[in-house]
Amino acid sequence: MIRHRRPCAIAAGLLSLAAILGLFQLKFDSEPRAIFRQSDAEFEQLEEYFDQFGADDNDVIVVLHGRNLFSPEFSSALRGFTRSAAEARGVDSVISILDVPGAGGTALMPLPDASREAFAAARSAATRHPFLAGQVVSKSGDTMLVTVVLEKDDPQTIGKLRPVFRDVRDLTSHSFSGLPVEVTFAGSIAIRIETLAGLRREFFQITALGALIALVIAIALFRSLGTTLVVAAGPATAVLWTLGLMGWAGLDIDGISTPLPSIIFVVAFANAVHLMLDIRLARREGAAPRRAARTAISHLGLACVLTSLTTAIGFGSLMLAETASVQRFGLSTAAGSFLGLLANLTVVPLLASLAKRPRRRPAPLEGDALPAGILARLATGLLRFATPIIFVALAASAILLWSASRLKSDIVWTETLPSDSEITRAMERCDEDFGGALQAFMVVTWDETREFGDPSLLGFLREIDALVAANPTFRGSLSILNFLPPTADAETSPKLLQEASALVPPAILKRVLRTDLRRTVVSMRLPNDGAAATRPALLRMRIDLASLQRQ
Questions:
Q1: What topology does CATH give the domain 5-30+200-356?
Q2: Where are the domains of the chain?
Q3: What is the pTM of this model?
Q4: Which residue ranges in the chain fall short of pLDDT 50?
Q5: Contact residues for 403 (Cβ-Cβ < 8 A; gap 6+)
Q6: CA 334 to each of CA 199, 250, 301: distance values in angstroms, whole numbers, following the listed order
Q7: pLDDT tens-digit map of 339-382
């Protein structure tokens, strides 16, 4: 390679040119649901549920909080907002208190020209309503939720969701302006947009910060800007080649792969520093630039291969994960490790071999003045106490291994947002007033021998409601029972179902009951406490449901 520097440099340049072209195909418009997509039976069940009852991560939840939500002014503003939002681009439907009828078949929320007494009665009725209370209106009547259901347009990328969310936000600002009402947004759509909207910016910030820190360390180590730039050229080329390859392969940048360039740069930078240290030592011993570069490769080439191989194996093992986004991250990082090896063994020696021979031979440094000399003295001191250090290390490893075994996987939806952000406040409000903005769903299927009004089925749903009520983690159980009287039986259920269908908003009915599929859904609200905190309650519910199903 050193003998044929020009052809090798041309080859590296062509690879870099191809990588630059690949960068133009690299996309940052991630699909949030794809980050969690898995190739297992449970995710298939989730996709089936989404197809039959609608996706729970396709809603923009508008949280309205104020002391006087049941007033003529608010009624007028709410009607204007829901009407405009339903007609906005990308919106399928809007679910609010206006969809629930009150006495006489009119909307429970009175018209703006109604009396104050009518609004007071509506407030009292809403806080006791079997559907509204705890689902749309808080028990205090001071908080109200409006759910804006977006159109299903797969893939639901951030690029598609952001303008729709922006339009809904603008409509709320216009509709409720001047009213003593706090308007915030909750739910997965708002969180994902807020988290992933700055993905491109964070991607370049993290990459630049990692490179800057590495360059500062290199300048402190080599005390030469030219040498530092040569060292950084290899890792920078590795990042360019990796991102270009991702662009050609159609692998987009998502939330998980944001730190990928920094990882590749830092891993490759370590090997580049080793190569440059060896080249500088050879130069100080009088070797010509080309010979010094060739010597460094012969000394450290195999070591660089082994370190890159172990790094690639470590990241490549992520391809065994069930989550597709983690698999892609592992594959891309493993490929970047090999490209980092290739870049370091070509770009760094080639650039180092171009250095001019110094006019006079530099004086060799004394061994103790070199970093290697300092490390040698440290190693000598450690070896004097080798046996006790080994026992201390084994004991510390055992303690830390026990501690590591107690680690739990966790995710809190708002953990990537500032604690004082609007969405974080909205999620906290939903936790306090409704038991959470997030929901879990239980799907009940009955066989061909039963009709929906079968007493055993209705009894089964009531027992599920009892399980939800008995668990303090969950609140806000919602099912078709919320629209049927407690005394419903086999003779009256078909008629009651028809009556309930006339009273239930269509957008809600299709989310809780599909008689054509012999399926119904029971939902429950979960607080935004994180997966680790809610997992025990969910596992307990699985066990209870399995026992109930056997009975």
A1: Multidrug efflux transporter AcrB transmembrane fold (1.20.1640)
A2: 5-30+200-356, 54-196, 435-550
A3: 0.79
A4: 359, 365-369
A5: none
A6: 22, 16, 19
A7: 999 999 999 888 888 866 554 555 554 444 455 677 788 888 88
